[in-house]
Amino acid sequence: MRKLSRMEANKEVRRVLNRHYADLSYCQYSVAGLEIRLTGWLCKFDNSDYNIPQIESMIQEFQRLLPGYSVTGDFDNWNFSTEHITFLGDRTKSDNEEDSVLLIENSATDFDSEAS
Predict the structure, then answer these.
(1) Which of 15, 46, 50, 94 is the most buried (most CB within 10 A)?
(2) Entry pTM
(3) Does residue 62 contact residue 31 with C-beta atoms inside 8 Å?
(4) Which candidate, 21, 3, 14, places its Cα nearest to that of 36?
């Protein structure tokens, strides 16, 4: 597969976010080199929240359509990469409520997980 231009990669990121109903008025994205960086607040068009399987599906689609790119979601309410997903809380939860899951378990490095 040929290397995508920055403009083509940004277009693919926008397509994935749209397919997953992300409200782009709250979510910003950029592609630099082989890194997809997502920031802001991640919610759907109807202002509802995502769940961990939906985030995992979005990451998998990024990996399928943009092979070789790393994905970093550094949102106010979510923090994720290809290795982990952490829900930091929504507008109605207290600050100390957090859910997380470790996505890569077959690694040479021993990771601690807060997954419940």
Answers:
(1) 50
(2) 0.79
(3) no
(4) 14
C-alpha dihedral, 61 to 65 to 71 to 76, nearest 10°: -50
Please measure the distance between the N-terminal and C-terminal CA atoms of the chain and give it in whole angstroms: 39
What are the pLDDT digits (tens) for 23-77?
999 999 999 999 999 999 999 999 999 999 999 999 999 999 999 999 999 999 9
Question: What is residue 64's three-state secondary structure?
Answer: helix
Distances (CA, A) of 66 to 4, 36, 100, 106: 8, 9, 25, 23
